[in-house]
Specification:
The chain is mainly alpha-helical and 1109 residues long. It is built from 50 helices and ten strands. Helix 25 runs antiparallel to helix 27 and helix 42 packs antiparallel against helix 43. It starts with a strand and ends with a strand. It comes from Mycena metata.
Length: 1109
């Protein structure tokens, strides 16, 4: 709304000045984001000085179209001497749908005639009768607003207020008071008028009086909030509310994030008469207060038309007290969800709790209704947190109550031991206990059935602290479950008005010590509770006395019904071992209520007639199985659909030891094995029948594996295996990390980073050598230059025929190994695990081949004569084919071995352990060049040839042991290889057979000493010859090999330099370690690498510094 007051300054009442003032209001007063200024300010500044009324009117219409809805109020039009020209210039705005002109004037004939002549449609109305009070209210409100903005005008507040009242002179409308509501409504003026005209005349007058009345009272903002809250509850509530409940719910808006029972008591302490008086004074004639037949004062909105007006779809959101129905439902849902966290157990122990109980019952009955109708989801701001707070506040208390009542009923509800005259009274007392249990059951029904669980709730675990906190909230610091049952029994007795049979039974005798100490876990005891309840039903239902009692009560009192309800509920909860991932489905309780009808009558009759019509007594264990399968049907493992994919099944097969691994195993952190969950669930189903054959049959994970073989494996095994290769690689990689963690403990993280750097540097080195070698020996213009490939291929086939062990990684050839593993897998496995000599041959000839290869590369690069370079080129081509073959065979062999174990993997877990170790070695030693002898190649190019005399003997011993521990320790303490490391490894070498150690060491020294002697006379193709004495040049060369712009992602850590060799790492924060189990000791946490400046360290350090993301 923009307005112009005529009669203040005649010099500013020209049409140009009026339009400029209106444009200025739009640009500078109602545009907080300055969007309008960026669009129209430049034009306004150009035309402001020398602008015609037509240009200004066009600019005003443009800005108004952007705003969407503009009310133009021109007050005192008759006081403008040039009002005829004003009407003529403003007439061009009359056809704009975004602009509504409100021209205020005294009732003068000339003004009315010119007005009707300038505008086609004119609607006139009288405002004299409402002007006086509105003028005073608006003047006071605007003065207070001005003083807040400019405190220096506080001493002139009364003067300013009187000045505004004098200038108004009885013509300022109530629209000035509602300006804030009409501004930024974004609606067409016709829609606003249509909405206002929808009210009856008396309601329009009543609604406007309500708005104007707020400005005449103190605490205007506070009262305005209360009115809106009360109107939302009246419009959104599906049933009538009492005056006390409406007043309490309206006041709870101040602390809906944490409603407590004390807050509810504070707001419900007022009497009904006083609450009705306060609501009537606040809402005036918009509500009706009626008295119900039972004497309770109920409140409702005065007329349905007003409700439709307040929640009209086309109503502006800020027009007075209008709001959308979804906003009202969201408001009620937030408060109801907060009220649901109040303790029922506390409520039942208070006196005069009718109003408090009514509020809590309403919240639990209708919070889901409000939530669904609000259009919100748990992704909205604060909704997921509110829901989680509600769950946390009620879940622990409900579990305590269910546990206590269940134990009480299981062990002490023996109707056959009660005298006949007291049986009916006992049954009625139990029915009262059922009514007491109803709110807690309804809580969990709403939590687990009607509402989709939020992401935070799916991770919620009922831990020890949750139960203890719930107990403390309910009973105080020294409370226990015994006191809960005492209070329940006391409530039942006081409710009936006389002592109940339940109160005469001792409670300490049947409560286990674990419950008294609150140290139980739902996973371990809920299944036992459900089984005990079924046994109670079995003891009661077939007894003829039970039928007699039911006849005496007329069939309305059925304690078996409550037992079945509780047992089904607890059994369903216990049927899911992972509460945080598999929320229980409570479809069986969807019709549960505490009215006269009995939703479980059919089930109770089935139990009764089954036991009455049997010709032989039931065995307790057979009866337990029978009732369990009858009440909650569970699929047996033999009939479970094979829903697992081939990838999941192969992962489970390869990680077979997962079933026996501890909770702290790294498998459970990185690998999600679905079969392990299936296996655990099967065991939980049969945990109470540990002596039966089915439990022993399912106890072995191999049975679960074989029962869930996917159809893909049966139909297309090879295709399914190829699809599973990425999953197998993940498991092998995880196993490698676990072995590394067990070996080096807290040093695993920096060691893993160093391993990745070794891979990167080795790949860069090999690639540079390959490029340089290709440029020398491959010349497309000279066909003679690649004749050496003919000799290389010929040598390769000769090796394939007579020397299979040279350049390969097993004896016989890996391809023959694959054939043998399918023909006779057990013999193949024994040969692999006990025959170590082929490893020694491979180590020897691999190092010999590497040395000759680099010698040939150097000779080829240096040689200028074709005769000198031809022989090394032949060897390089021959060796390239061998390496290619070895890589391909390593991939196939490492991934196909699982197929060879299918026939016998389920009989010996130790074989699987050895197989995993062997597969890890294949992948990370043969394929990725991460073996210790492969690092020797890197040492040749980076540190010099003579260092091989000490390095390669150590490599041979480490590979012989097949132990990642020594490999990682060697990598970690790599800078100490010139001194102390030789002595440390000497202790290990002593344990080797003397002949093998001497053969390996002497052979390697001879071969690589000769290689070093020849390479010392060769050129230095990589410029690394003198890096032995200059660590800075070596570091610079390494940085070139490992550029910073291509980092490797190691895991959840920040981009930080690697760890120096002699630096003690600090532990990582828990937030950066990824998913960890709560009981993981601090000593097993992975350390965080810390940067150490190489210029500040003494002695010989790592020759390079790298960044790892």
């Amino acid at each position: 709304m923009v307005y112009f007051l005529c009669g203040v300054d005649p010099a500013l009442e020209a049409p140009e000045s009026m339009l400029g003032a209106l444009i200025h209001q739009l640009l500078f007063r109602f545009d907080k984001d300055r969007n309008l200024q960026s669009i129209a300010l430049s034009t306004f500044q150009k035309v402001k000085a020398q602008a015609t009324p037509q240009e200004l009117a066009s600019l005003f219409a443009e800005v108004a179209s952007i705003v969407g809805c503009v009310y133009v109020v021109i007050d005192g039009l008759d006081e403008n001497k040039d009002y005829v020209r004003v009407l003529k210039e403003f007439a061009c705005l009359a056809g704009n749908a975004c602009i509504r002109l409100l021209l205020l004037s005294r009732n003068m004939y000339d003004v009315e005639q010119h007005l009707r002549r300038s505008f086609q449609t004119v609607q006139d109305f009288d405002i004299i009768q409402y002007s006086g009070q509105d003028i005073n209210a608006v003047a006071k409100f605007r003065t207070e607003e001005l003083v807040v903005l400019k405190p220096e005008l506080a001493f002139q507040q009364q003067i300013i207020e009187n000045y505004l009242k004098k200038n108004a002179e009885g013509v300022f409308l109530w629209l000035g008071a509602a300006r804030d509501q009409l501004d930024r409504s974004g609606m067409n003026p016709d829609d606003v008028e249509k909405t206002l005209n929808g009210l009856y005349p008396e309601m329009n007058h009543m609604y406007q009086n309500l708005i104007s009345g707020l400005y005449q009272r103190e605490n205007m903002v506070y009262r305005r909030t209360r009115v809106r809250s009360a109107l939302k509850w009246l419009c959104a509530s599906p049933k009538s509310l009492t005056v006390s409940s409406l007043r309490a719910l309206m006041l709870l808006e101040d602390n809906y994030d944490g409603v407590t029972l004390e807050a509810i008591e504070k707001y419900t302490r007022t009497s009904e008469a006083q609450a009705a008086e306060e609501l009537k004074a606040l809402l005036e004639s918009t509500i009706d207060i009626l008295e119900s037949p039972d004497g309770v004062l109920m409140v409702q909105i005065c007329h349905n038309t007003l409700k439709e007006f307040l929640t009209h779809e086309d109503a502006p959101p800020d027009l007075g007290f209008t709001f959308s129905m979804s906003a009202a439902q969201a408001h009620c849902a937030r408060i109801s969800m907060s009220v649901c966290g109040v303790s029922f157990m506390q409520l039942y122990q208070r006196t005069d709790q009718r109003v408090r109980s009514e509020i809590i019952e309403y919240a639990w009955q209708f919070w889901a209704y409000h939530f669904h109708n609000s259009g919100l989801d748990f992704g909205a701001s604060g909704m997921a947190q509110s829901f989680d707070r509600m769950v946390a506040a009620s879940f622990g208390e409900t579990l305590f109550f269910l546990e206590g009542v269940a134990r009480f009923l299981c062990q002490k509800f023996d109707i056959t031991k009660i005298e006949s005259k007291d049986r009916l009274e006992f049954v009625r007392s139990f029915q009262e206990a059922q009514k007491t249990l109803a709110p807690s059951l309804k809580k969990l029904v709403y939590l687990c059935k009607n509402i989709p669980l939020s992401q935070e709730l799916q991770r919620l675990r009922v831990e020890q602290n949750t139960k203890v906190e719930a107990q403390r909230r309910t009973l105080g610091e020294d409370g226990n479950l015994k006191q809960i049952l005492d209070k329940v029994v006391a409530y039942i007795s006081s409710f009936r008005g006389k002592q109940s049979r339940l109160s005469l039974l001792p409670i300490d005798s049947f409560l286990p010590p674990s419950l008294l100490r609150a140290e139980w876990t739902p996973h371990n005891l809920l299944a036992d509770i459900a089984c005990g309840l079924h046994m109670t039903v079995a003891n009661i239902a077939p007894d003829p006395i039970y039928k007699e009692i039911m006849d005496l009560s007329g069939g309305s009192l059925k304690p078996v019904t409550a037992l079945v309800q509780v047992s089904n509920f607890i059994e369903t909860m216990a049927g899911f071992p992972y509460w945080d991932q598999c929320p229980p489905s409570l479809d069986a309780l969807h019709a549960f209520d505490m009215e006269d009808k009995d939703p479980y009558e059919t089930h109770a009759n089935i139990v009764y007639y089954v036991h009455m019509t049997e010709k032989y007594p039931w065995d307790p264990q057979q009866l337990l199985v029978h009732t369990t399968l009858m009440t909650v049907p569970r699929p047996l493992f033999m009939t479970v659909p094979r829903s697992l994919s081939s990838v999941q099944w192969y992962t489970a097969l390869l990680s077979y030891r997962l079933f026996f691994s501890s909770q702290n195993s790294i498998y459970r952190t990185f690998v999600m094995n679905p079969l392990a969950q299936v296996h655990a669930r099967n065991l939980m189903y049969l945990d109470h029948q540990a002596k039966c054959g089915a439990f022993r049959f399912l106890a072995h994970p191999a049975t679960t594996l074989m029962a869930h073989i996917p159809h893909d494996f049966e139909d297309a095994p090879f295709q399914a295996f190829l699809i599973s290769l990425p999953a197998l690689g993940l498991v092998l990689f995880t196993k490698y990390i676990e072995v590394l963690t067990k070996g080096v403990g807290p040093y695993a993280w920096p060691v893993l980073q160093i391993q990745w750097v070794r891979i990167k540097v080795a790949f860069n080195t090999q690639f540079q050598n390959f490029i340089g070698f290709t440029q020398l020996i491959w010349d497309p213009t000279n066909t003679v230059s690649y004749i050496h490939w003919v000799f290389g291929v010929a040598g390769y086939f000769v090796r394939r025929k007579y020397f299979l062990w040279f350049g390969a990684h097993s004896a016989p050839h890996p391809i023959q190994d694959i054939v043998n593993c399918f023909i006779n897998p057990l013999a193949f496995w024994e040969a692999r695990t006990h025959g170590w000599w082929w490893w020694l041959k491979f180590i020897f000839w691999q190092n010999v081949g590497n040395g000759i290869l680099y010698l040939c590369i150097d000779l080829t690069r240096q040689g200028t004569q074709a005769a000198i370079a031809f022989l090394p080129s032949v060897f390089v081509s021959f060796w390239a084919l061998c390496v290619l073959e070895r890589g391909i065979c390593a991939i196939v062999n490492a991934t196909c071995v699982p197929l060879s174990l299918i026939s016998f993997v389920f009989h010996d877990a130790e074989m699987v352990k050895q197989f995993v170790n062997l597969s890890v070695h294949y992948w990370f030693s043969s394929l990725l060049n991460l073996s210790t002898w492969g690092t020797g190649i890197l040492a040749v190019t980076r540190l010099g040839s003579w260092v091989l005399l000490l390095v390669f003997p150590i490599f041979g011993a480490m590979v012989y042991f097949q132990d990642a521990f020594w490999d990682s320790i060697f990598t970690l303490f790599y800078p100490l290889r010139m001194g102390l490391w030789v002595a440390v490894r000497g202790v290990v070498i002593v344990y080797l057979p003397v002949l093998r150690v001497l053969a390996i060491v002497l052979t390697l020294i001879m071969v690589f000493a000769g290689a070093a002697f020849f390479t010392s006379f060769c050129a230095d193709p990589l410029g690394l010859k003198y890096t032995q004495v200059s660590t800075e040049s070596a570091a610079e060369q390494a940085r070139n090999m490992l550029p910073h712009r291509q980092p490797f992602r190691i895991g959840p850590t920040r981009r930080t330099p690697a760890l120096a060799a002699d630096h003690q790492p600090e532990p990582l924060p828990a937030s950066q370690l990824g998913p960890q189990l709560p009981d993981q000791p601090a000593s097993q946490q992975v350390p965080q690498p810390t940067h150490v400046d190489s210029t500040q360290t003494a002695g010989y350090r790592r020759p390079f510094v790298m960044d790892v993301e």
